[in-house]
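P.,

For your records, the input lines for the assembly:
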Amino acid sequence: MPGALSSFRICDFTGQLAGAGATKWLASFGAEIIRIEDPVREGRWDILRGTPPFIDDRRGIDLGGAFNNHNTDKLGITLNLRDEKAKEILAELVRVSDVVSENFAKGVLEKWGFGYNQLKAIKPDIVYVSNCGFGHVGPYSDFRTWGPIVQAVSGLTFSSGLPGLEPAGWGYSFMDHTGAYYMAMAIMLALLHRQKTGEGQWVDLACTESALTLHGPALLDWTINANPMRREGSPHSNRNQWPPMAPHGIYPTLGNDEWVAIACRNKTDWDALCSVIQRPWLTDKVFATLEDRLNHQDALDQHLSDWTKDQTKYEIETALQNVRVPVAAVLTPEERIDRDPATGSFGLWPTVQHREMGEVRVDGQPVHFSKTDWEMTHGAPCLSEHTMDVLTRVLGYSEDDVIQLASEGVI
Amino acid sequence: MTALSGLRVVELANERIAFAGKLMADMGADLILAEPPGGDPSRDYPPFLDNKPGPDRSLYWWHYHTSKRAIALDLEDPDGAKTFRKLIATTDVLIEAEPRDRLSKLQLDYPTLSEIKPDLIHIAVTTHGRKDPRSDLPATDLTIMATSGPPWSCGYDDHSLPPIRGPLQGYQTAAHFAYMSALTALLYRGVSGEGQFIDVSMTAASNVSTEAATYSWLVAQKTVQRQTGRHASVSPSGETQQLCADGRYANTGVPPRFPHEFTALYDWLKSLGLEQELPEAVFLEMGAEWQGPFDLSLIGQDDAITAIFGAGRAALQLIASSVSAQDFFLGCQRAGLAAGAVNSPEEAFEDEHFKARGFHTHVHHEDIDRTITYPGAPYRFEKTPWSIRRPAPKLGEHTAEVLAELDP
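Structure tokens returned:
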């Protein structure tokens, strides 16, 4: 079956999650992703290559679980770009590619002789998408970031927390995932423009800037009303501002570190919640209207926690689902992956075959296409796994040529 | 000419997909927002212009509906349905987040619409996907996130405090996937001429966006635990968030690992006159003179590496507590260390870097004769720039205009 993106070839320098996540999307829809790595450093620029989690505690440069997760169905080749012959091979590859993608620090590709102007000289309609923390333009363009730094600088860490406490932030690199999504969008938007006009272009993606667009109306509340998020009692991110809801939060349930999320959007939800709880405090006039409940949220949350803490999260989830109140147990990784039938039946955790790791489950895509659905079958490439294939099939070298190049340290 | 110009997108108004529509509209799609005659409820969400509620004053609406045109359309009414069919005949992408059976009951589902427009791309966004009856249960951004992973990983070292969700991101993560799906299907249509139906699950979207929480389980059946201001982890990790002298926090990032980083950090410490306050300063000098690989996997085993690495972290914490968060950020970055100030959104917005990149976007609102500053582009295209072409539409503002286009 042809994939939605089978007609595209990407010359891919991305790594880590912020870059690799972008080309993972394209690969799962059939684009040919040719991932280029440095044979001298064994591709260690992408630190995930050799870091945990590991299958059966087997360690090694080809055995990183995160690397496998983010690089499914990509081809992996090595080019020693210190060598002029390797640069010639790269130029040949650019000439037959639609896109060059990278998430190095600013200036790295340029230093190797493959900056945007040089890429354009090789292939006039090339799409070039660079992705780094602060972008290639602006006073901080030489600064370095990784996911948590992007989140800190852009306001996302701050916006996740409880009043009177330090920021809770994100317990993972939310902006590596999301930066990758913006990079995938950028690549596809530029390809759509090229499909229409024949014209390539450069997209300068700064993850911090993408992150700054994710605050919803908070920034308009600042520019127009001068209402800052840094103020007494704010943020209180388990509560809802837009629209206001009360109760709205995450409450303790029976068990160790077990929680349930409950939200009442309106009077109907509140009445339904009351019909399940049936305790005297519900009729207290301080909780009569939404405005009252918003004004007494601390007391409301205390009462609700007293009710939730003696039941399991699933009991509460079922009871409130039955009366159609928005509710959800806070699920652990095991629960959402292996016990929630929805994710399994959606096909969200496909098993791929990795040359060294064997069969491994990975993150799938949260969508299904009726005609050209995504597919994941192969794990991440081992170092240089496809050098022979790409150089012979795509660039027309003979097997002997490739063996010779390897002996010369070019690949 | 912009990347999506010439493409018509119809969005059936729903707060869950408003952001996906904005992303397409700001890249040039002719986005027609179809609302029921009474208007979408989110027209009344706070915050409000000048803090005063009222019609067309919702900044929530303003933010999520830039560059769109709005028509009032009652799909339950035969005339409304007829107009919708006519509109679909001119449409490239339909995006909706309706209850699963609503459009089929109205005979406006994909099988019907694709007869009218064979190459239509129809994107249906639900909480759990088209096949799961739970998609018809009520849900909010909070409950969607709770069931799909993010809060499990976000919060504090003290687990008597509740897990935290980052507001809005359940909706927005799903919107990113809806948008990526639209672009993917458009590229395929460009090659094949074919449209298709796309099923987007909001809970699945967050489920595959939680990094190590997921693959620690998938690969090694290990469970991460949340920690204050840093990655949830299978084993506890060192703190990275530090209170600075101005009462703000900084993220101290990864401590130095290379001689030039130790040198820069030690020089900075001395320039602040703080070297006497750091008993471990001598280990920074050792780090600066380190020969050969500095193998982090030997921390805890090799005394010298352990002491040097610990001294780097201690020096960062000492400096952070002695200067402002912004000075800490700038000082670290100039020393080549990836660290950051924990900015509030407004502090980030006012930072000189984003101003210099042109992130502040000025949009004139004719009706109130004011120019409003909006957050700008998530990406900078050389040839097909992002732009806000008009402020969010009033209810039915473009009904007559669009109807006239359909019946010229």
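Two observations worth noting. The first strand of chain A starts at residue 9 and ends at 12. Chain A touches chain B through 153 residues (CB under 8 Å).

Regards
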